[in-house]
Every structure is written in structure tokens, then in C-alpha cells.
Amino acid sequence: MRLTPIIVFLYLLMQAKRWLLLATLLVMVPFGSVWAAAKCLYVSSYHPGYEWNDGIERGLEKVLRGQCQLDRFYMDTKRNTDPQHAQDKALEAKRYIETTKPDVVIAGDDNASKYLVKPYLKDTAIPVVFCGVNWTVEAYGYPYSNATGMIEVAPIRPLLKEIQSIIRSPHKGLYLSSDVYTEHKDYERYRVIYAEEDVELKSVFVKSLEDWKKKYLDAQKQQFDFIILGNNAGINDWNVEEAQRFALTHASVLSVTNYDWMMPYSMLAMTKIPEEQGEWAGKVALSILRGTPTANIPIVVNRHWQLYLNPVLTRQAGIQMPKPLVHKAIKIGTD
Fold first, then answer.
1. Is the whole model's pTM more than 0.85, yes or no?
2. What does the pLDDT look like over 185-203, one tens digit per residue?
3. Residue 279 — φ and ψ, nearest 5°?
4. What's the pLDDT tens digit per position in 98-143?
5. Would you state the pLDDT for residue 32?
6. From edge to edge, which strands make up the β-sheet containing 226-229?
7. Segments of the chain assigned to CATH 3.40.50.2300
8. I want to staple 68 with a disulfide (CB 3.0 to 4.6 A). Which of 22, 40, 185, 228 is the partner?
9. 307, 331 in Cβ contact below 8 A?
């Protein structure tokens, strides 16, 4: 059949439109990216507004924006410490997963692994990326065929070295913290490691700000060489201004912490970075969505720390900080 010029023209016009549509799609969806239809669910052990939790979310949002739709479920087990509450929220999260069918579940901190992933998601078809699990995954039996993650390790030994640079031969310290599961777990790690350096570490766990103030004041009088201030999350009546005024009035013993939000009451902090956990989890989620088998991705630990100094409190207590430490630390408050 002989093609007339008008038929040839119409055919070429149709082909041009098809190539234009394809080019438009390639511009809209960058090569190698995940389609926007992919869904990632972040199951947090805690609640919005908790600094650590929010930092993980910032890391996730930074990596997943435009790559995977990020949904959230909060178990709220820091303010509600009853194990029955955790079990109820985990079952609720399981049902939410069954309803929304996310492509990847990102489980933040210990209780999400303990109450949700291990009982309900272990070795299932849905990929799981955990983060923020403290120290070890032994209690949860990781890795699973469908799960990998990042372990959260505090800089215990580096912090002790900084303490030893300030106080010659410290022998006795106090760990003062909220009465929650992860803080008991953290304290046991501190106790064992510090004992290796002949440093005896006692612990006090409290549920209210008044109890915290009382134990903080007692510690100033009991010949402790230093105080480690653990997390205040779980002390539901915490008041930042009141606690800060109290510390400024009574601080006389070196106080240190692993949490940047405890710096208004601490002289020195060496902290983990929650965004590191979130960014890593987000990148792994995208890798899984692009076809990498979850079982092929090894479990890792966090690698980055930040050092902070509170010159107002150190001056109040009359504690002289080593110049190298002062030089490298980020200053908090007004000096």
C-alpha cells in the first residue's frame, strides 16, 4: 500500500507525542529513584516532641522526601511505661500495617522491636529496618530474613576519658535518670565498663521532677566524683526552667550526659546523633525498595558523636575544664 504524505505526517506526529510523554516522565522521575507510590511506615517506640524521636524523623524525612511516602505510628512507651500499654499499641500497629500495607516498616528504638517486630513481623514478607536499638540485638534475635538495622551505642569509654581529663583518678560516680527500660539497660552498660577502670557507679531512677531534684541535691553531698545525668524522658512532670534554675543553684559536682537536651543541667555532653539513625534507616529502606534483599544488608552501629560544654554551670561549680576540651566542644548557653 502506498502511503500518502498526509498519512506519513500523522504517523510521525503520533510517534513524536509518545516520545515527548516518555521524556516528560523521565524528567519527573529521576533515574534510579523509587516511584512515589512506595509507602514507608515509621513505627516509633515513643511520641512526637521527644527530642530523640524527632531527630530520627528528621533524618528519615531528609532521605525519603520525594522517594517514599512516609507514614508514622507512635507507640508512646516513654510516657506510658506499663508493659500492657506497649503490648496494646504493638497490636494496634500490627493491625495498622495489615490495613495500610506499607512496602517497608522502619522500627525506631527498643520497644518497637520488642513488642511489634519480634512477635508479629519476624521472617514475614514485609521488610523491616530497625534503628535506635540500644547496645545489642540479642534480646530480639536479629537478624531475621526480612530485617536489618542500626544499633545505638553511647560513647561510654570516650566520655569516661573526658571525665578522667577533668578529674584525676575518679573512683565513684552516680547515674541519675528516669525510671524507664532503656535507662536501666544503659546504666548496666556504664556500670560494667566503668568497673573495668576501677570506677564504681551507683544508680538512682526517678519518676518525678521532685525526686530528681532531691537525688541531684543528695549527690552533691555524698562525695561523688561525678554525676551522669541520664534521660529525663519518662519524668512526665519535667519542667525545663525549674530544673535549670535548680541545677544552676546547686551544681558543685561535675555533671555529664549523653543527651544534648540534658545540657541545660549538665556541664559536659558527648552525644549520639539521632539524625544518623534516621538517615541510615531511610537509605536502607530505599535500597530495599530498589531490589536489594534485606538479608544482604548487614547490621551496623552508629559512628558519630558530638561534644558539648556548658560554661555557665562549670563556672558556677568552680570546675576548670582542660583547654583542648574547651576548644573542640560546642558551647551551650551564654559564657
1. no
2. 889 999 999 999 999 999 9
3. -65, -45
4. 999 999 999 999 999 999 999 999 999 999 999 999 888 999 999 9
5. 42
6. 200-206, 172-178, 226-229, 254-257, 268-271, 306-309, 330-331
7. 39-153+273-301, 156-271+306-331
8. 40
9. no
